[in-house]
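In response to reviewer comment 3 from the previous cycle, which asked for concrete evidence that the modeling workflow produces usable outputs, we include below a single protein chain processed end to end. The sequence was submitted unchanged, and the resulting structure tokens are shown without manual editing.
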Amino acid sequence: MEKELQKKKVLVGMSGGVDSSAAACLLQEEGLEVDGATLHLFDNPTIGLTNAHTCCSLEDVEDAAAVCDRLGVKHMVFNGKESFRKHVITPFCQCYEAGDTPNPCIECNRSVKFTLLYQRMRELGYDYIATGHYVRREYDEASGRYVMRKGLDEKKDQSYMLYMLSQEMLSATLFPLGGYTKAEVREVAASHGFVNASKHDSQDICFVPDGDYAAFLEREKGEPYPGGDFLDSNGKKLGEHKGFVRYTLGQRKGLGISSDRKLYVCAKNAENNTVILDDEKALFSSELYATRVNWLSIPAPEGTLKVKAKVRYHHAEQPAEVEMVGEDRVRVRFEKPQRAITPGQAVVFYDGDLVLGGGTITEAVRE
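The workflow returned the following structure tokens.
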């Protein structure tokens, strides 16, 4: 623990899960004054769910409160429903309707969770916020910047989801789990008798826990999305789809198309309501463009910068060169073509375990 953190007040974002609970416990054991805060982001009936358990729901508020009671600390609940709808759900629907595939967890971190926690930290007189993310924060004396490094548990590293933090936000945020494995975190929770010590991790988007994005989108829209044509790369009709929001780049299963070759979703045209199918080789791209760029651990580079880049959370990092081509736009060129680079997802840049920054993919240049 950094010396300057001793006897400081920390507001811990507590989702009701085991990670944030263990984070609060570890900070308290280090001698910091800890309180818990849970953001109530939606009610299940509001998003069309009745019996599903999801993160950020009322059930999680109760679990977080039980852990705080066990630790003997204050627990607060902040209403973030309006912000969550404005910054996450509405853009999520708009992105799908434009033919892209959003990453709402990144947008939630960017515009809702960290923003609201930081605001409450300032208003209530805390010195730091903390979360249960598996990343590490350090101060680099040479550059005078706070930097982010991957969590030591490679399987749980969440740096891909946090590249968008500002220097101001990173300087005020503690990540006590960055040096722990998931198994060790569960041991911490179990040893303190937390109700959520064995609680399963969330696997799906919190407001779409069944993974049926199309059904959620149709509930939000209030009507079904119309069917349209499956086309090949030459514009020939191959069949009919059931609404283009139901398909993602790289998808092969569930197309309902009879063919003598394997066909994959290679593009979507929202304006014409068509889905383009082709061979797998048509999915590969060597270059992409991204906007909403944030340089986290370094200033914006001049010229080209050699990095390792990943275009999905579970994507293996790949050698690439990144170059600023506008005030808020980068071009990324990979050494080898990458499969199914998807507009709406994030591209994140690394140098070893150092998180350099990232942006939102807007275009993939096909081979």
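The chain has a mean pLDDT of 92. We consider this sufficient to address the reviewer's concern, and the full set will be provided in the supplementary archive.
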